[in-house]
Amino acid sequence: MLLWIETIVFTALLILTVYGFFSPLYLRYKLLKLGKPEARFDKPLKRIKDAVISFFFLNCSLKKERVFTGIMHFFFLYGSLTFDTVSISHVLEGYKEGFNLFGHGGARLIYSAWADVFGIMVLVGVLYFVIRRYIFKPKYYTYPSIESVFIYLLLVTVTLTFYLYEGAVIAHNPAETYAAFVGKEVAVRMQAVAPMNMTAVKIFWWIHVLNVFAFVVYVPRSKYLHMMAGPINIAFQDYNPGSIIKTLNLEDENAQGFGVVKAADLTWKDLLDGFACIDCGRCDDYCPANRSEKPLSPKKLILKIKEELLKEGRAVLKAHDQQKELEPLMGRVYSEDEIWTCTSCGACMHVCPVKNEHLPKIFGLRQSLVLMEAKFPEELGTFFKGLETNSNPWGFGSSTRGDWAEGLEVKTLADNPDADILYWVGCAGSFDEKGKKVSTAMVKILKEAGVNFAVLGREENCCGDQARRLGNEYLFQTMARGNIDILKKYNVKKILATCPHGYNTFKNEYPKLAGALGLGDWNVEVVHHSEFIADLIRQGKLKIKQEMTSSVTYHDPCYLGRHNDIFKAPRTVLSATGAKLLEMKNHCDHSFCCGAGGGLMWTEEKLGKRVYQMRTDEALETGAEVISVACPFCMTMLDDGLKDKGKEETVRVKDIAEIAAECL
Fold first, then answer.
1. Nearest-angstrom CA–CA distance, 125 and 415
2. Within a domain: residue 30?
3. Domain for residue 658, yes or no?
4. 30: buried, middle or exposed (CB in 10 Å: 19+, 13-18, 0-12)?
5. Sheet strands (E) in 493-612
6. Is the pLDDT of residue 62 over 60?
7. Secondary structure letter of residue 36 according to DSSP
8. Integer Cα distance of 25 and 148 in angstroms
């Protein structure tokens, strides 16, 4: 097809295109190597399977949050795969006239129609995204990106030049039509203008191939690298609950700092997240901080990592090779208002189509601020002091921790070492007035069901969850060591917790902490009271004697639902009481945070709208007479919300344990 001089030029362009494609990929690979090591190579078959399924079946985009947008991405994906294949055929055709990857039989007949269909689909997809981004301008598309303009133009030119080349081939030789219905129509119109000779065919071939080469060179340099990085990121996702914070080795004498100070303190997976991000904004859609008009944008949190790496990529590599200190991220890339407004609800990670992990970055930045600079919101000084001196956030005397149980004839483990289960009351259940009512209700339930249980009383300490999420890893580890020693002392085998934060910490973090600190194996079963009460009802050990007549809406706590996948048990308890359950607009895995998670229970919400008021509004919209919760933090926040709205006399907030106890 090509003359010898054309072949030389074409070969040179092909080599430059291959170099242009792989050169930025290699740079990004070297940048990823700046990150700290992280073990993400277990379950290799599962990882490969999840990546392949998510990629080819577009599980990553066809999510219920934006179904139609996912369909448009489906057009893009299979359009790209189609044109990738067609382009390989066209490139080889430059060396051998008449060559086609699919031969000249039935396979080519099918593929010729397939290519035309998906060419149309790509154009439809581009039109959809242009209208959506530049006319409707949704909030999550406002992140500046000239790259979108370039990629849309390239998608259009590659598709249109494909149709022009296809039409030229068919106009020159109608036997090449096969089932290319678009190409046939283009050929008719070309013939109406002028006869199509081989020179014209070659011109259209060159135009199309050059557009393809431009597209190939541009993609790895743009945000559309996510087409390749996304599936890889999915393959290396963390299969542990997203709420787990990795244990810092605070005794490492060689450590230059703790937490995330500079880009090199992030792991390679953290850095990969930046390249995998598709800038879709789903995380912003569901982030309570972002929706309440606070500075935090989970999307920008991720994209800033990529920008930081690429801004002066080679300079960063050179500085790292010369062991020069990289610039700190805080104050330059991230602001404190961003980092301290995250409730750690996990909504961002739950909806991310490529499994980006936002929370570890925020926790790491908080750790560096607290441990290295002693910088944190002013209110947290009192909070940390209360934990350090009396092992509770309020600073009440630790000797009064068991006073809530006076007159209830509750035994401690010291008095009942053979108890089947340890009821971990928690700080709120021991000191907060509303929390004490939940503890009393739980005791009533346990006694009614004949459960052999005990508490720790004065020996119980804070689990440390909030200290850890606020970046004070040293304080957390100190408290956790003490708790593990006490639990081992009594040989505890099962813990019952009414607080999802304590439940999550004992279930998911203490086992890893015990291993990391050399404290031995953790063989303790942990159960949340929603699961425990539901099991008692199912087993017939707890009889509902008086049905509840009030309508109820249930608020899913983030650390119980989204982080630990417990949605059914609380609703089972409520259904057993005969309550009429009215679901909020955002419930189950899309439950809206109460605003207290991530340690923000102990800070003042000064920026934007108040998250707890937004959630209270959702609860009131249901018209329910009772807002049911399964977390002491949620109870406090929603109760405050009702007071702010002047609804505390007409609508009540109750824990599911209180509701169940009232029906016995």
1. 69
2. no
3. yes
4. middle
5. 494-497, 525-528, 551-554, 580-581
6. no
7. B
8. 19
Structure confidence at residue 94 (pLDDT): 86
Distance CA 495, CA 513 (A): 17
Query: Strand 525-528 to strand 580-581: parallel, antiparallel, or no bridges (unpaired)?
Result: unpaired
Identify the residue whose tokens are 């362009």: 13
Q: For the segment 465-490, what is each residue's pLDDT rounded down to a tens digit?
A: 999 999 999 999 999 999 999 999 99
Q: Output the six-digit token pair for 527.
A: 């159960």
pLDDT at 143: 62
| Residues 352, 54: Cα–Cα separation, whole Å | 12
pLDDT digits (tens, 9 = 90+) for 177-196: 899 999 999 999 998 888 88
**Total number of domains in the chain:** 4
**154/163 Cα distance (integer angstroms):** 14
Q: What is the pLDDT of residues 551-564, one digit of tens each?
A: 999 999 999 999 99
Domain that holds residue 284: 263-373
Indicate the pTM of the whole model: 0.90
Which among 224, 357, 239 is positioned nearest to 301, based on CA atoms? 357
CA-based angle 398:402:403, to the nearest 5?
100
Query: Does residue 61 carry a pLDDT above 60?
Result: no
Residue with tokens 């085998």: 493
Same domain for 361 and 425, yes or no, is: no
List b or e across 196-218, with b for residues whose CB sees 16 or more CB atoms inside 10 angstroms. Answer: beeeebbebbbbbbebbbbbbbb
d(CA 408, CA 446): 12
The last residue of one of the domains, among 317, 341, 373, is 373
How do residues 295-310 score in pLDDT, each as one tens digit? 999 999 999 988 888 8
Separation CA 370–CA 382 (nearest Å): 14
Does 206 share its domain with 87?
yes
